[in-house]
User: Which sequence fits this backbone?
């Protein structure tokens, strides 16, 4: 495994998780303030950045497991990681829901509201950290 790339994924994922918490706290502290509109844009981008690190890790693991196939989509990649016991079922479900949310943000169809995104982050705080712990395990 490319350890330098893995360390970069860990660094970026750690930063994303920290930034998600911070943005959420700022928005919730004063949700009616004009500036929260711009912080919400940042929150969406940070969420997408988090998932990009998940995609990088998935790609690395698929290659490490010799399961990478051209044309494999992220859902299929997550299924392989679950089947190979890199991810447990709970983390697989979380990451699959995060994948769908990330797609809605990135492709701007049925883009989630600020409230929906904040609720997803709130409901899954432990899963963000669990994802980071799984990645760190391969260091």
Assistant:
């Amino acid at each position: 495994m490319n350890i330098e790339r893995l360390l970069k994924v860990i660094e970026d994922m750690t930063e994303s998780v920290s930034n998600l918490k911070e943005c959420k706290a700022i928005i919730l502290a004063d949700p009616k303030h004009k500036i929260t509109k711009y912080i919400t844009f940042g929150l969406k981008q940070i969420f997408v950045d988090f998932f990009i690190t998940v995609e990088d890790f998935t790609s690395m693991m698929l290659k490490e497991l010799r399961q990478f196939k051209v044309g494999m989509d992220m859902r299929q990649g997550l299924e392989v990681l679950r089947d190979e016991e890199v991810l447990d079922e709970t983390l697989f479900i979380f990451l699959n829901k995060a994948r769908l949310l990330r797609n809605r943000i990135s492709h701007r169809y049925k883009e989630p509201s600020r409230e929906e995104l904040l609720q997803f982050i709130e409901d899954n705080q432990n899963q963000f950290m669990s994802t980071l712990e799984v990645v760190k395990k391969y260091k």
In short: The first helix runs from residue 3 to 29. The mean pLDDT is 95. The radius of gyration is 15 Å. DSSP finds six helices and no strands in the chain.
